[in-house]
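All the exercises in this workshop are built on plain-text protein records. A learned vocabulary of local backbone shapes supplies the integers on the structure line. Once this layout is familiar, the rest of the handout is easier to follow. An example says more than a description, so a record of this kind follows:
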Amino acid sequence: MEHITLLLGIVIVTALVFDFTNGFHDTANAMATTISTGALKPKTAVAMSAALNLVGAFLSVEVAKTISGGIINEEGIRTEVIFAALVGAILWNLLTWLLGLPSSSSHALFGGLIGAAVMSAGWSSVNGSTVVSKVLIPAVAAPLVAGLAAMLATRLTYRISKQAGEQATSKGYRAGQIASAGLVSLAHGTNDAQKTMGIITLALVTGGVLAPGANPPVWVIVSAGCAIALGTYLGGWRIIRTMGKGLTDLAPPQGFAAQTSAATVILASSHLGFSLSTTQSCSGAVMGSGLGRKGGVVRWSTATRMFIAWGLTLPAAGLVGAGAEFLTQQGTWGIVLTGALLVAGSGVIWVLSRRRPVTIDNVNDLDDVNDEPAGVVTTAIAAVTPPPTGSAVAAADDLKTTIPGPDTEPARPATV
């Protein structure tokens, strides 16, 4: 580390800041359904997720290799390009966190990196085939595969436990949900912490500290794991609310099916070196589990906003990254201005978030979500779907209180 320059040190610190935002932005991936169903208390859930994210960071470096030597060509890329890419990724992460939208931190990083690289060295600096095969195709396939798997798993789960009462199975499902949430947290650390490792490794290569194609040093793995664990522990309560309650109403069997499906997809992708979006996998699994339960619906108005954010992530972060790289090309004052704009933008977003704060105390309060219109699809599904088992008696009681009974008082004789 003795050859690290001041600029390289700033880039490393900025990368760890991104890793921190990745942690609190993506806590919902692992723990939103566990918190929403009451399987774990919020603080216990995020502490458990943080510890397992840290452990997961040490399990593999395949995704880090994809980022550090796959998406862009290392030759001719300056250290300032990495800094500009991180600026775009951090600002997009914070903006979507403010809006409570579970967008992809991974795609924000890729978008910033691609935009900054193109601004610096042209389109030839980007490995298009790697972007398509290991970023774009998994981005489309992951939520579909996870959603389909979760829908089938939910239906299978309800069919297996059909003969047993809800009270008899709820404890078992909650225990299974805790285990599957731990698996998602481990998978998140394995996949997402490596992205920061890859970025820092790429910065070290561009700074001449490491040879091209080198593995992340141990200190990079440790620092990236600690940063994402700390961010996870603080909890991104806004996105936890959206993921846990805003997309659909989840029961413990659905939460178990969703998390198990998502964890399987994420771990498989990490093993293959696909830099998968854990957010998209988990969101797809949550929606699939909502559709898998009889009587369950998805709030498509919320889902639509989430889909729009997914589509905008790569180009939006890319544009910000390209703009930041344009400034850094102007020299020292441009680098300083870029850093100042990053700090100022982050501060403005934080101030705006304080107007309507979401904390550990109100994370399951869904007044804001329930006030929005249900949407045409949700209304249509609800109109033709029979109510869940056990609600017939309550519905009959409501009907009795709504329709007045016959007047039992004897009629008085008419007066002449």
